[in-house]
């Protein structure tokens, strides 16, 4: 279940990141026809969406892994009425589009972002799971090696 939740959060992250770029290119799509549904039952129409921490930081391998783990996990969403919400990924239950055509436009924007690697839509979310698991295993090995070194 944890893996499925993490996968969903990665899908939402990839979609919202794509929407932040799409909003700059096609602002007419962001008139409230797209919205987020939260676990508390709120429906938040999207006029603009921006990731609060969109890129990783350099530093030690542990610092890099930590910054990669939290990048694009919190988004600021402005509604057409000017309200502003700051939401972590785990609070987003669903993405809503008023029409199937609009949903296809959003999906097409996501596909364009992934076309450079010729991977299917949603693959970036799956690849994020694999990368996070590799980082977690590497960090655990690094910590074990450091502990062994300190206790020799």
Could you walk me through the main structural features you see in this protein, from its secondary elements to its overall organization?
The protein is an alpha+beta fold. It is 51% helix and 18% strand. A 3-stranded antiparallel beta sheet has the order 2-1-6. A hairpin with a 4-residue loop joins strand 1 (34-38) and strand 2. Helix 1 (2-25) crosses helix 3, helix 1 packs across helix 4 (123-150) and helix 2 packs antiparallel against helix 4. The chain is elongated and about 65 Å long.
How far the N terminus sits from the C terminus, by CA atoms, comes to: 39 Å
Give the strand order of the largest sheet, numbering strands 1, 2, ... along the chain: 2-1-6
Order of SSEs: HEEEHEEEHH
Q: Total strand count, please? A: 6
Stretches where pLDDT is under 50 for at least 5 consecutive residues are: none
Radius of gyration: 18 Å
Helix % is 40-55%
Question: Structural class of the helix and strand makeup?
Answer: alpha+beta
Per the principal axes of the C-alpha atoms, what is the gross shape?
elongated
Strand content: 15-25%
Reported for the largest beta sheet, the result is: 3 strands, antiparallel
- Give the averaged pLDDT, no decimals: 79
Summed up, the helix count is: 4
């Amino acid at each position: 279940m944890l893996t499925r939740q993490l996968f969903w959060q990665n899908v939402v992250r990839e979609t919202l990141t794509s929407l932040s770029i799409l909003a700059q290119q096609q602002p007419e799509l962001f008139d409230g026809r797209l919205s987020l549904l939260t676990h508390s039952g709120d429906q938040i129409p999207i006029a603009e969406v921006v990731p609060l921490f969109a890129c990783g930081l350099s530093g030690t391998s542990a610092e890099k892994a930590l910054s990669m783990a939290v990048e694009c996990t919190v988004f600021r969403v402005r509604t057409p009425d000017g309200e502003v919400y700051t939401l972590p990924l785990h609070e987003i239950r669903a993405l809503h589009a008023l029409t199937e055509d609009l949903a296809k436009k959003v999906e097409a924007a996501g596909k364009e972002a992934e076309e450079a690697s010729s991977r299917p839509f949603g693959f970036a979310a799956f690849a994020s799971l694999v990368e996070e698991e590799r980082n977690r295993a590497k960090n655990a090995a690094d910590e074990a090696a450091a502990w062994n070194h300190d206790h020799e």
